[in-house]
Amino acid sequence: MAEALSIAALRDQRGASCNPVGAPSVTSDLSENVILTTLDDLHNWARLSSLWPLLYGTACCFIEFAALIGSRFDFDRFGLVPRSSPRQADLLIVAGTVTMKMAPALVRLYEQMPEPKYVIAMGACTITGGMFSADSTTAVRGVDKLIPVDLYLPGCPPRPEAIFDAVIKLRKKVGNEALSERGNLLPTHRYCTVPHQMKAVQPIVDGRYLRAETQQAALAAAAELPVGAAIPATTTA
User: Fold this and answer.
1) With the CA atoms of 201, 207, 209 and 210 taken in that order, what torsion angle do they form, in degrees rounded to the nearest 10?
2) CA-CA-CA-CA torsion for 112, 130, 128, 171, nearest 10 degrees?
3) Is residue 167 part of a domain?
4) What is the pLDDT of residues 159-178, one digit of tens each?
């Protein structure tokens, strides 16, 4: 009997001290039913909640980006809807190594995207050239040499969770923007327009070695051999 009384007293004491939350009451106060905001906040909230990335990738980092489309990570809950057309996308995630041959196409896709638009440089190869920065003659040492970058995402390759973190940081940046200051953020130089500042140079690999006498002799000897025969090795002085 004493044990039962002690348990009942303990329950009464816990109920009095924990202050349980009751059922919400509907009020008619103006301050609790009307939300006041500014046009900047409403516009930024709409944009940060509907970032549409472009389906674009150049190397192995795109495999991690493509994993977000599946049900395991489901990046649609962030409002990210992948688009195949740059006319309908406002987020460019450069996933993978950018070569000099791919650079004009990348810049063209970026300039076809409507304003305001944002760029995430994903992976070490995109940011600095990565492991190709020392020996490769065609890798671009940083995509920020071609287009303006809003957020850098390091890694080789970054995990899908890291892409979520980058998108959350980008959403914070979008939420702090103002319509009056947007003109200061626009790029002042276009790379694919006619009055560009790029200097045309002659190609280093011009195919002259294919026209050498030793190469022509080897091709002529190979043409005279029957099908399936081994080509003799040629040496140059």
Assistant:
1) -170
2) 60
3) yes
4) 888 888 888 888 888 877 76
